[in-house]
Amino acid sequence: xxxxxxxxxxxxxxxxxxxxxxxxxxxxxxxxxxxxxxxxxxxxxxxxxxxxxxxxxxxxxxxxxxxxxxxxxxxxxxxxxxxxxxxxxxxxxx
Amino acid sequence: xxxxxxxxxxxxxxxxxxxxxxxxxxxxxxxxxxxxxxxxxxxxxxxxxxxxxxxxxxxxxxxxxxxxxxxxxxxxxxxxxxxxxxxxxxxxxxxxxxxxxxxxxxxxxxxxxxxxxxxxxxxxxxxxxxxxxxxxxxxxxxxxxxxxxxxxxxxxxxxxxxxxxxxxxxxxxx
Lengths: 94, 174
What we know:
The structure holds two protein chains of two kinds.
Chain A: E1 4-7, E2 16-20, H1 25-36, E3 41-45, H2 53-63, E4 71-74, E5 78-81, H3 85-91
Parallel strand pairs in A: 2-3
Antiparallel strand pairs in A: 1-3, 2-4, 4-5
Chain B: H1 9-25, E1 29-30, H2 34-51, H3 65-68, H4 78-85, E2 93-94, H5 96-99, H6 115-123, H7 127-135, E3 141-144, E4 150-152, E5 170-172
Antiparallel strand pairs in B: 1-2, 3-4, 3-5
Helix pairs in contact in B: 1-2
């Protein structure tokens, strides 16, 4: 599994940032939901990072001080922590 | 990460069988949803390979065992989460209610305190505070009226891990 990457969704959808752990089942479900919804997103699996783990965790902390996963960031303001399909769909404007 | 070959299906399934046996023997249950148990068991094996210990697949480990001890599976928070939510944080373990289909498996809030607070807890466990804890019990102690098993926690376990008596057979001991 790649530590970082991006998935292109259907055009015209806002970009979502996904912070997760490669071993976490809730992260897997959340990623699948984004894929099923055709959302373009950038992903980072923090447990697979080496040198820049601290920098990425600082990013996560800015939105989610508890530093838990999955953390989804919509634009530069809204953040949803955990696999909450209804809330995520709502944030995506579904 | 040294070994990047995927963990084999057989190894995962054998591990799940062992986990289930241990769980049932202690009065616990694995999540009845196989997607969860298989995926989480795989995560535990990957973490064991990566860090040398089976830290929670749904929490970020530091790689230093001392700092991660509380999230080595089964974690320090499992039993309280089973009582309050019916599953543990990653949902590898589930309660009787979940097993009976009376409760759905949903993500639960993180009970593990932030690292700064955990460090305070460790610092407090020196000799002086150990002495003072002998006179002031920080948690209620529960006694299984069936077999006498004692445990110190906020509430009694759902099932006695020794004799399998239900929570209502526990009495407040201290």
